[in-house]
Specification:
By secondary structure, this protein is α+β, with helices and mostly antiparallel strands. The protein folds into 2 domains: 4-37 and 289-422, no CATH class; 43-286, no CATH class. Helix content is 56%, strand content 16%. It is elongated and about 110 Å long.
């Protein structure tokens, strides 16, 4: 208390070090939470296969110098691929096909631009989607391609305005559909969805995949126009999208079988598609794992910076306490002559070091919390300040004071009382 300015300056290193520790832990916890949310969005043990549009295949052929007109014919991604994967790959648990068609939904006088998704019930399980009300598709719906649908929460809010949608009908394109279920609204940021290549299912209308093929569109059908053009026009422009399906999601039984299953499925589709690269295979869980590894490396760098700050702060405490011992030699001699033991002297100087460190720790906690908030608002990086991180940072500050104050305290206790009394 007699040297307030010096004590505050001594605690600055601890203060910034503790602030850096809390901010680092907040960034790490926020990143971990974001990754867990991403895992919930894509499901676990999943492999995603996307159909590649014909124009993208044409570009690849052009880049490689191959003659696009000589490219073998491919049936595209279709339901036969689903059956082949299900029957021939033993490590596959479920396969969810998906067809996506942009359209508009109408109910009464209200109209909404939306997308019709042709799916099976496996789609909802693999994408961790649950129902708010109603039921999933029945087997008869799938077999007969009946005009029924499950809608997202925002579709119900915009078309039915608080009135229950179950049992009512909406018109999608030229097809009337009866609502049998409403999905729970799933909270997810646009950045998280775009990073994973997902869309917002809250705005979609889902129908049985057989209903999509029968009542909306089946791109695999051979039409007179396709036969007449041979798939290309006079300018050698690639034909329209011939893929029956837009996307497949495959769930593997065990996570360690993801890579092997992906390779087997890739070889299977390559043979079925006559070596035409009109599909892409992704393993979202591995992509997220790589993202998490990168984030862990970033957190390690932050931890090293915070550790260096604490080390510098600890050295500062040791330096000032050693100087304090030299200044207070006569005080030490007087206390020893009045009966103070070496333990008393050690306790005195050790308490001062820990006290300075704790003051820096308290101020550092405030700086860390404020820094985490500023990082979230200015850099749009998610941060989460948890109670255990504050407790740990406070404990680290006390430990630094204890460790780096031990040597000066021991140095003070070793002073000879007679020599100390003679010092000026």
């Amino acid at each position: 208390m007699a040297n307030r300015l010096r004590a505050v300056l001594t605690g600055l290193g601890i203060m910034f070090g503790v602030g850096a520790v809390i901010a680092m832990l907040a960034i790490g916890t926020g990143a971990r939470q974001a990754i867990l949310e991403q895992m919930k969005l894509i499901g676990t043990n999943n492999i995603v296969i996307r159909a590649v549009p014909p124009q993208d295949i044409e570009e690849e052929d052009g880049d490689s110098g191959a003659k696009s007109g000589n490219r073998p014919w491919s049936p595209g991604l279709n339901l036969e691929d689903v059956a082949a994967i299900t029957n021939l790959v033993p490590s596959v648990d479920q396969v969810s096909p998906e067809i996506l068609i942009p359209t508009s939904a109408v109910h009464g006088s209200r109209r909404l631009s939306t997308r019709v998704g042709g799916v099976s019930n496996a789609f909802f399980e693999l994408n961790n989607l649950s129902l708010e009300r109603g039921s999933l598709f029945h087997e008869v719906h799938m077999e007969q391609g009946m005009p029924v649908c499950i809608i997202g929460q925002r579709v119900e809010d915009r078309l039915f305005s608080g009135v229950g949608a179950i049992g009512k009908t909406i018109k999608c394109g030229s097809t009337w559909l009866r609502v049998v279920g409403v999905l729970k609204q799933r909270q997810a940021s646009e950045d998280a969805l775009s990073a994973l290549g997902l869309r917002d299912y809250n705005d979609d209308v889902f129908v049985p995949i057989t209903t999509t093929l029968l009542r909306f569109k089946d791109r695999s059908r051979i039409t007179k126009a396709k036969l007449g053009s041979g798939g290309r026009n006079s300018d050698n422009v690639v034909q329209a999208n011939y893929h029956q399906l837009d996307r497949l999601v495959i769930r593997v039984r065990e996570v360690d079988e993801l890579r092997a299953t992906s390779e087997v499925v890739g070889r299977l589709l390559s043979r079925r598609h006559r070596e035409v690269p009109d599909y892409e295979i992704e393993i979202p869980e591995l992509l997220i794992a790589q993202q998490q590894k990168t984030q862990d490396t970033f957190n390690l760098v932050l931890a090293a910076i915070a550790g260096i700050s604490l080390l510098v702060g600890g050295i500062g405490i040791m330096n000032i306490m050693l100087a304090s011992v030299l200044e207070r030699i006569k005080e030490i001699g007087i206390r020893r002559s009045l009966g103070a033991t070496r333990l008393d002297i050690v306790t005195q100087f050790l308490f001062e070091a820990v006290f300075i460190s704790l003051i820096g720790g308290v101020l550092g906690i405030f700086i860390g919390v404020v820094s985490a908030s500023l990082i979230t608002t200015s850099a749009d990086i998610p941060t989460v300040v948890s109670g255990w991180s504050i407790f740990m940072a406070f404990g680290v500050a006390a430990t630094v004071g204890l460790v780096f104050g031990s040597f000066p305290a021991k140095r003070a206790a070793q002073q000879d009382p007679i020599k100390a009394l003679r010092s000026e």
